[in-house]
Design a protein that fits this description.
245 residues, alpha+beta, 2 domains, 8 helices, 39% helix
Amino acid sequence: MKIEEIIKEKPHLESPLELYKKIRQFVDECKVQKEQIKLENSTDLLDVVLKNFSNVFGIPIESLSFLKDEIIKIPKNPFDKPDSIWSLSIQSEELTKEEIDRMLFIISKPFFVFLRKEGQQASFMDTGKCPICGTDASLSMITENNERIIICPLCEHGGSFYRICCPYCFNKNPDKIEILLDDEEIRAEYCLECNTYIKSFREKHYIKYRDSFLIDLISLPLDIVVQRKGYIRRSPNIIGIKNIE
């Protein structure tokens, strides 16, 4: 299902869906160019990321030159530790802190995706965190065989996990995990032990939308309801939103 069609059905989600459309284009173009161009070093790859960010979001590349300098100076290599980009201290008279944080999150996305290796398989069973980038779980798919696949919102790796279990505190008591469904039967499974939740959708939803992250976004109202109940989402969605006020 195309984003434009979803916006017609759910006009209240136009803004986050339009942003996601650009993020998807940005990440996909970075992936294609990384594979097509023989890059000599990490600086070349950083140039590719910033150039595509400039093209997709309509920001002059000259305005991003300072970002290149700041990213290169980060003590931790962003190609190994992409979330190090989030900690950059940037002052701007034109952008709010929220806008700067969102920009840094978006720029970090290709670096997270670059961590994955083609055909790589690894489960979330040991820690409940993404085995590729270490991100906390927040989204999962229940297959037709009733198996659970957790999908990382940052590096986009998918791996198996226990069918009934909180990925944060490993509570496996079904009496301590409650479920809230939205109109499309996308669910929030919230843990009464540690006050956290993870969203889950059935494979039929994936067949309909063909995009796990779209499913996460169209169910944003579910996040609002569950968070108002006092439950915590441990990792951001694809557009960088974790806490919804």
